[in-house]
């Protein structure tokens, strides 16, 4: 590890952000260049033996235009902004938007100028390019997270707060992947004069990249404006943490009324075209999935049956959308009749009854332990997805006894269909405590979208492959 990297990681925001942006830009270029060359090789193999006609030369030009427009849009739409790298879905959303914009641009150009473009080439390059960008950014994200755990590529933050425990501080401690490290704190009190020069001096003294106004900070609009002006000659960013939490960007809109910024919160959408699109995605993937894995499911069924001659499938009443009960299907992983001992086992392991699972459950069979380890026992719930009782992505389907213990806010989990996977699945799974599981489920309920569903499905595959938190 070079001394330069250590220095960059410990402070100089302009340096490490520029370096990181260049690295990502280089990766984007080489990934899309390779994808373009490979797709030309597949679609026009005669190019490589020098046998070119006018049509093929035109498509080489089109390929160059696709590559250039794609890279340009990736640059201007902020897909390499450091404040979205390493966490969240915004980075991947911008990759998707850049791909769609480039495709639309090429389609428009071909229509206006009546260009002869190989449709097969276009239909190959955009999906393969987007998938390749996803993979490359995922690899870069893992490297970035590792670097941030080592103290590199992080922003040094000066936090303004009221003296009490600020919620921002707790959140940032839990979110090391965001690369925000609080290195100094200053109190803002009503009885004291707000000294923006002192704050800037403290930030410079501590080599800070950001001044963050916490949720508890006592600061007026004019003081905030003066602080922003004082930072104009520095490389220090000013960040304000609003009191609104657990609300995703698409639901937040800012308007300006006579210089007064107003934050609008759109209501969560549980119906309409988005709901219909989600249902179509569920149907398509559940049908295709069942067809592809049906031989594998037969093998699993034979293993379960041969172990103790019991039933292969286990059904249980669960509570779904709008408090409607349905039978959820799973591969049987416990000895038959052992579900009646659930409360006793949970009490012995000091496990919250609302979380349902215990890592040391004696009722689990040997094949069942393997199935749970790799989340194979959940696969029959695809039947529930096909029937419309569940979705591929959503909160975990609870038992009626669990629902009876819900607080009022926790019942909002029932506003959407329960899912085969969800944010809880990709954020710790069974290792989460009840409060974290509820927080993640409610975040999903309040902010769900098709893009979020697709990202969760991708992250689920990775979590299952690693076997994280499953029992």
Summarize the model shown.
It is found in: Membrane. This protein is α/β, with parallel strands linked by helices and about 475 residues long.
What would you say this structure looks like, in words?
The protein has 471 residues and is α/β, with parallel strands linked by helices. The chain has 3 domains: 147 residues, no CATH class; 89 residues, Rossmann fold, CATH 3.40.50; 194 residues, no CATH class. Helix content is 50%, strand content 12%. It is built from 15 helices and 10 strands. The chain has a 4-stranded parallel β-sheet, with helices on both faces. It has a two-stranded antiparallel sheet with strand order 5-6. Strands 7-8 form a two-stranded antiparallel ribbon. The protein is globular and about 75 Å long. The two termini are 38 Å apart.
Q: Tell me the number of strands.
A: 10
State the shape: globular
CA radius of gyration is 26 Å
Q: Which structural class matches the secondary elements?
A: alpha/beta
Name the quaternary structure. single chain
What is the mean pLDDT? Answer: 83
β content, as a range? 5-15%
Helix percentage range: 40-55%
List the strand order in the largest sheet.
2-1-3-4
> How large is the count of helical segments?
15
* Distance between the ends: 38 Å
Order of helices and strands: HHHHHEHEHEHEEEHEEHHHEHEHH
Number of domains: 3
**Any low-confidence stretches, pLDDT <50, length ≥5?**
1-11
Largest β sheet strand count, sense and barrel closure: 4 strands, parallel
